[in-house]
Write a structure and sequence with these properties.
This protein is mostly beta strands. It has 3 helices and 12 strands, in the order βββαββββββαββαβ. The strands form 2 sheets. Strands 7-6-1-2-9-3-8-5-4-12 form a 10-stranded mixed β-sheet. β10 and β11 form a beta hairpin. The protein starts with 5 loop residues before the first strand and ends with a strand.
Length: 174
Amino acid sequence: APEPLVVDCILSSVNRKIPLKVLIDTGATGYGFIDEHTAQEVCLALDIQPLPLSRPKPIRGFDGRLAKPITHAIYPSLTVQSHSERTAPLLITSLGQHPMILGKTWLNTHGVLLDMLHDKLIFSPDRCDHDLPISTTLSEPKELKQKPPQITQILKRDTLTNRRPNDTTGVLQS
């Protein structure tokens, strides 16, 4: 069986960085998800805190069973290849074998094309207005008085779908 598309990424805050492997999952219809144990490590390394969601997001496994609702997210800067965004909303949940997943909403938002032959992402030019240096990133997500409107929209529509029966990733339904 072919290997899943996993690429390197960097999560960061002011003067701090942590490299991670991220699963690119077109079956995950949400923006971004991070495993709860990985989120703890990232928060310690970047000196950030998870923020509570305005309401819990129910989650269903690929088999339709309800799992523990998602209640928190982190908002670090995210760099994948040479593409950076200052605030990436990552919902904290149990992901099983992957530390982080970027889903279809993330791919669409950034105009990503998949190069499956070379296991790379191709970013459409001029698709994003946030391709700026991340030197102005806030060190603590709690400093955000209000989430930018695009993040609020992303969190409202985020869903996580998994079609692999041997993975413990769930289906998020908001």
